[in-house]
Amino acid sequence: MTENGTQRIRLGLVGIGKIARDQHLPALAADGRFDLVATASRNASVDGVPGHPDIAALIAGDHKLDAVSLCTPPEGRYEQAVAAIDAGLHVMLEKPPAATISEIAALADRAEAKGVVLFTTWHSREAAGVEPAKAWLQGKQILAVRITWKEDIRRWHPGQEWILAAGGFGVFDPGINALSIATKILPDPMLLQKAWMEVPEGRASPLAAELEMRSGTAPVTVSLDFLQTGPQTWDIEIDTDAGTLRLGLGGSVLQLPGEDEQKAPDQEYARLYARFAELVAAGTSDVDIRPLQIVADAFMMAERRVTAPFAF
Ligand code: NAP
């Protein structure tokens, strides 16, 4: 039971890798609405929690599960989500929610038909500066948007070969975080006009990309790079008729014109699990695929250049 007398959500965590350990486990441990009752991962487990090699064994185990949270790579997550939904479990998906648009549309239909909750999480939308940025932009004229997301794949994704395979998204794995913020705070849809990608020889997904978009009448440029050594950049700048708003460090730092920088502690995953608990209590799904649609558009439209082979 929780402090409010409601049943705690009995949760299974699937895919015990970097994000599960860095964020999901601490967030779950701190949230009194969840009990982590079991895990599923082929090569990893969590001390003190019963572990299974895959989601089928997790579901077959006698854990009286209410929900699962999937932290596996996007390719293959569809089958895991189908298994969970068919077993009557609520499902929380790491970003990106699926490898394709068709997969996530099918999952949304399936969850609705089964009467379970589906939650497509976008953790960067929970960064401290994002809600205040959205509020400040209300009623202002957007003149131009510049998104610069440049990080070092070897530092943040060591050995994650899947990220450059088909369905791994390449530089759009971090880049979709920027798109998740922009689609939340900009008043108008973001429409792709031109795109370029650099794909290393022998790989399926890009290490760099440039997008030219528009949102209303404002031009939006997106510059993504996975080979950035030295300082790392996760910035969104928005020129308006009232000056330039800057969101830095992935949305955690907000700079409004003429004001001091605003920063707050990272609460992204605490907020995601709080939201999941609310959705489960209300029996409501939250499925927003706009960031994924933009990535799909980019993969449809981009001019591709093959670059030198890449090794981790
Ligand atoms: P990761 O370290 O590779 O962990 C994913 C885990 O999923 C693996 O350790 C693996 O555990 C399991 N898995 C199941 N099927 C797999 C397959 N076919 N290939 C590889 N691993 C498989 O990846 P991650 O960084 O945690 O990312 C997972 C998801 O979280 C991605 O969608 C990513 O975009 C998202 N995410 C990552 C970060 C980050 O900073 N890394 C931040 C936010 C969101 P077993 O081998 O034990 O099965």
From TrEMBL:
Gfo/Idh/MocA-like oxidoreductase N-terminal domain sequence ranges: 9-119
Alphabetical list of InterPro entries matching this protein: Gfo/Idh/MocA-like_OxRdtase_N (IPR000683), Gfo/Idh/MocA_oxidrdct_glycsds (IPR050463), NAD(P)-bd_dom_sf (IPR036291)
Protein's name in the database: Gfo/Idh/MocA family oxidoreductase
